[in-house]
Structures are given as structure tokens and as C-alpha cells.
Amino acid sequence: MKRIITKRIRLIFLMLIASTSMAFADGLFKIVEGLSDESLKATMETNVNALMEALNTASSQNDKSVKLSKDNFTNEAIKEIGLIWKSSAMMCPPLNIMSKCLKTPNGYQVRGIPVDLVEADENEKRQELTVDFLPSGKISSVAIAIEMHRYDQIMAEKSSDIDYVRRQVIIDFVENFRTAYNRKDLKLLTSVYSDKALIITGKVISEKPNSDIDRMTLNNNKVVYIKQTKQEYLRKLSSVFKSTKFINVKFEDIDVVQHPKYDDIYGVTLKQYWHTDRYQDEGYLFLMIDFRDADNPLIQVRTWQPYKNNQGQVITQKNDVYHLGSFRIVR
Amino acid sequence: MMKQLISTSILLLAAVAVSAQTDKAEADQIIYQILTEKSQTENWHQELVIDSSKLEATPEQDIYVVRGDSFQIKSLRSDFYVRKTAGEYVPINDGRYPLETMVNLLLNRVSDNKHKLELRHHQYGGNIKEIVLPMQNLFDILARNMLLYCSVTFIDKNEIRAVLVFHQKNINFIHMLELKAKTSKLMEPGSTISGDLYTNIPQDNVNNLFRERKKYNNEKDYNKED
Fold first, then answer.
1. Is A266 helix (H, G, I), strand (E, B) or coil?
2. Mean pLDDT of A147-155
3. How far is B216 from chain A (nearest CA, A)?
4. Is the confidence metric ipTM above 0.85 for this complex?
5. What distance in Å separates residue B135's CA from the closest CA in chain A?
């Protein structure tokens, strides 16, 4: 009886050895789905098995590098594996791997090849490799797969960040726009106004008081709005540039609002202080900026409304300033 | 000595680029000139001091976030990541932690940063100039006098994108970089992080960057199909 048990144990042991050595000889890696070309499949399997064998050999011999053949790997892949090896030596556990092959724009990919990082803590030891192939089946890239899902929660809180960048680019644009007036840079101003820009400028008109009540309330100012084309506006601006020694424009209280329907249209409201050697004023500026071409934003609408009249009374409140809803966008 | 003096004065210029004496056009040019100088700069890093009261555990074992401050929005932060190894806290620079590594790279917490930056510098006048420089030069030139904040805005196995802001607190202006890198190349020395650079953006005249849209009487116009 004892002899039978010993025989059986010996048999199982021999079978185990045989299966292990067969596995190493035949390769542990198989593509079972996603590829019908048998010849290509065989090439890719051979190359992945060569990778696994090379990793195991280098690991068992404590080698500083992994010996890889250019028959199985591109130069870039050899470089990548060398870099991975430098930071984390690894070996492939003796497992049968049945893999699915994925088609990629540059060839093929298999995922989920288990490796054990030699020096990692126990709970971080097991990782997975993602292997990319050229259309010929040669390995073009090897990377340790990263569990991206662990970032899901962090990333879920970041929806506003991309919009943050856009809004700071708007502030950058507005500062360039301001600088252009101070530099009398007609070329820049010509380039930032859309050819079809709508330009509206408010002007305070004093009317003769008709009654005692008007006199008492000083309610004798009207703001009239003048509509100009880009060409008309820039022609007048050009003559202002020529007739003044200096221009000092300052912007304050900048607010940025995104259009609710067109996410590449923004409204900017600010207070403008205009000061030259001949004239000065304060007013509210509204700009509708079109960011469809992010490198070349365009001003579609510019409005200016006087803040105070000649007597120093406030005649435009912030709430009365033109805004995105004041204009209909036709595309 | 002279070289050092010139270098110091350049750094000072960078810090006061948008002061009253310098307008946006000149300030952008100064930054461009400094960043494109060929000379190798010092491998400068802010001293690594870990305040244990600011350490916060993450779901990953032995990985901690060192809490810092936020700037303008909640997720633009100066937080960085460390791993506890043999009782020491070491900034993470590990391909298995790409988000944490990217944050540490951008906040100049990686001591051996060999990455290259390829930037499109958006300058006054709509000029966009290409700049290629060692990433460490950027920190050496700008980080000494400015506060750094970053946020990773996108990550998958192929690409990682982030925004990095340098804030000059006294004059209240920022330089902003919108960057991207290949996730798999993050650990490769000399690999490239590319993106857009916007410089000398004033913040002191900004009232509300995210102003809520008001409900107006002509609200229906917004929703009308044109």
C-alpha cells in the first residue's frame, strides 16, 4: 500500500516537472481570441514567450539588464524594457496565459500578462504587462499596466480645471488688448477685432432742462449710443493715436462669463480708465470674445458706456452694462 | 562673479516683469529671453520639509499626500505626494504612480528631473514662439520667487495632462502652463513634456473669473435655435 502511494506521489511529481518543462518549451502564452492569422498569431506568441523567458532568466541570474533579441523586439521596446528593469526587476509566474488580441491604430496589443516585481512589497508585487506589437508581430512597446480606475475619484472633482485655463487665457488676451491701446498698436487691434465686429459707444448728451424739477434733480443727461463698424472705429482710433502724446488705459473689476449655449463664446465686463494728455474718462467696457480659434480669439462685440456725466454723477450702474444676453448670435 | 550678478539681475527682472515700468509686451520678451538662454542652470529645489500635521493617507499603502494650499480654484493646489520608506518620506517618482509622479514633477519635488519641456510661448501680439529647455531650468528661473500650484486635468494609460501656475504674490500676476505627456514615458529620462505657456497674466484687476451668469429679461434669446 505504502509502495503504491509513493509510486503515485513520484508519478505526480514527474508529471508536474514534465508539464512545467513543456510549458517553458512550448511557451506559456497563447492568443485565444481576436486574431485569425495563424502565422501572425504564432509570431506574436513566440515573441511574448521570448520576453517572459528573458525576464525570468535575467531575474534568476540577478542580471543588471535583460537580454533581448532584435528578432523579437524593436529597438524602442528593448530600451523601454531596459528602463522598466532598472527601476523594477520582475519575473513571470508559471501560469498559462490565454490572451485576447486587440487591434490598435499601429498594430496589435495584448494586456494582462502577469509579472511579479522582485523588490516590491507583497501587496504590490503582482502587476500586469501591456504589450504592443507592430503589424508584423514584433513587440514594439512593453509597459506595466496602471490601475487607472484608482484616479477616478480624484479626476471626478476636476471638471472646472480646463475651463480655468480658458478663462486665464481670456485674462491674458484682455491684458494684451489693453497694452495695444497704450502702445498705440493699431496692427494688433486690427487683428483682434472681427471684420464684422459690432462696436457700440455711449455718449453723454446734455439737454437743456425743461422744468424746475429737471433742474432740481439734474436729470438733464441722456446717453446716446453710436454704432460703428470695425473700419470706422479703427479709423477714428488711428487719428486719436496720432493726435495724442500718450495713452494710458487701465482695466479694473474684470468679470468673465461663459455663454450658456456656445461654450467658445465668453463675455468680459470691466471698468476702463482712459487717460491721455488731452482727455480722460471712465466707462464700462463689454467684450464678446469668440474663442473658436483658441490661438486667435476675435472680438465680435465691443461696447463702451460712460460711468459718470460731466457733473460727476454716476449714470451707468454695473447692472445696466451690456452683456452676453444683449446680443443674438447668428452662426 | 559677473555671471552670477547678471544671472541674479535676470531673476529679479523675471519677478518684477509686470511692474509699472514694464508692459506686457516687454515682460513677455524678457521671459522668452531668459528661458531660451543656453546656459545650464542650477538644479534648484525648494527644501523638502515634511510637516506631519499636513500628511494625509491615501488609499494606496504607504503613499501620502502632503497637503498644501489652493489657488483660485479648489483643485489647483500645491499638494505633493510622498512614500514612506524606512521611516523616511520620499517624493514619489515611480511609473506605477503616474498622477502622483506628474504632480511631483510639476511642483519641482523630484530631485533628479531630466525631462525636457517643449513649449509654445504665447506672447503679446499673437506671436507664438517655440521654446525647448530642460524642465529644471524653468524652476530655477521662475520658482524661486513664485508659488507653484498644479492640477492634473486628464489621465489615462496613454496621456496625462495638467495645468501648472506660477503665482507672484506681491505683484499678483501668474505664468500658466498647460502641459501634456505620454503616461508611459513619464519615467524615461530626457523624455518630453509639451504644452502652452502664457506669461505675465495680471490677477489684481480680476474681480470674478467665474462670474455666474445672471438671469436677464431676455433669457429666452440664449436658448433660441439660430
1. strand
2. 79
3. 7
4. yes
5. 20
